[in-house]
């Protein structure tokens, strides 16, 4: 059995787009993971149970509403991570 929350892919895609527009956002694993997890927790999951190819198709045709919701939740997560990073800011690049 295979199923998956395709909002996960939508959020990752929206986050990538966001990162390109905001070079000041911390790129470390931890901040990125926190942001994605926080974003997903604000969103209702949209589950698809189908083979890999169909999941990708579902993501590429994800309605505008799903993307808009993901972006909104992402922006609020980004604000929280920026305000309270789990490490001293700015982080020493070598540690990450
Ligand atoms: Zn960081």
**Tally of structural domains:** 1
Number of helices: 4
What's the average pLDDT? 84
User: What structural class do you assign from the helix and strand content?
Assistant: mainly alpha
Number of strands: 2
Pick out the low-confidence regions.
none
Which of globular, elongated, flat, extended, rod-shaped describes the shape?
A: elongated
Helicity level: 55-70%
Following the backbone from N to C, one meets helices and strands in this order, namely EHHEHH
Largest sheet: 2 strands, antiparallel
Name the strands of the widest sheet in spatial order: 1-2
Strand content: under 5%
Which radius of gyration do the C-alpha atoms yield?
A: 15 Å
Head-to-tail CA distance between termini:
36 Å
Bound molecules: zinc ion
